[in-house]
Amino acid sequence: MTRVWLRMRRSARALPGDTRGIAAVEFAMVVPVMLVLFFGTVEYSTAVAVDRKVTLVARTLSDLTSQNVSVTAGQLSNIFNASTGIMTPYPSSEVNARIVELYIDKDLVVRQIWTATSGSSPPAGAVTVPAALKVAGSYLIYSEVTYQHKPIIGYLMPKAGKNLSDLTYTRPRQSQCVFYPPPSGSSTGSCPTS
Question: What pairing do the DSSP bridges indicate for beta strands 110-118 and 95-104?
Fold first, then answer.
């Protein structure tokens, strides 16, 4: 028993100077923190990239629509398809969008002329136009995009994801308004006001 006791006393005295396993202990303490930082950075940078692409989709929708004198349902379908292609490599099935042509009358009251939507649950509701864009007798092309971004890992963000959205206003470029559906038998006509 005395031998065991002596060995334990020597071990206890030598313990403060023994540094053989210190690197393993430090590694075990630092790795969880480093993994959280790494995966958090990956998730955050992915969310920023997706948000940027949502903004580009909204701008592209209104830009492509505003470059036409009139659009058909087929052209609007192509515009939606081209715009959602921007989301690559992220799933474009999560993109929900709408394009609305607005008319601002002489009393600065905003009226919706036509709307087109894409996706499983496109944005809806009244469109609010900033006062700086309200010009009497003018038209605006409004586009709005929503996207449900789902995280890759899911430990740092809710697994359901985050709803990202953006909107854009553009004035028609080739004519006073963009006809939809186009006037039958004529390439010109008076722009609707209601």
Answer: antiparallel
Q: Residues, the chain, total?
A: 194
CB 181 within 8 A of CB 72: yes
Q: What is the largest CA-CA distance in the chain?
A: 112
For residue 88 the two structure tokens come to 């690559």
* Burial class for 88, CB neighbours closer than 10 Å (0-12, 13-18, 19+): exposed
Give per-residue pLDDT as tens, 64-117.
999 999 999 999 999 999 998 999 999 888 899 999 999 999 999 999 999 999
User: Whole-prediction pTM value?
Assistant: 0.79
Sign for the CA dihedral angle at 127, 132, 133, 138 comes to positive
Q: d(Cα 45, Cα 28) in Å, to the nearest integer?
A: 27
3-state secondary structure of 68: coil
Residues 6+ apart with CB under 8 A from 72: 180, 181, 182
Question: How many alpha carbons fall within 13 Å on the CB side of residue 10?
Answer: 6
Phi and psi at residue 18, in whole multiples of 5°? -80, 115
| pLDDT digit string, tens, across residues 140-160 | 999 999 999 888 776 666 677
Q: Quick one: how far is CA 53 from the chain centroid? A: 6
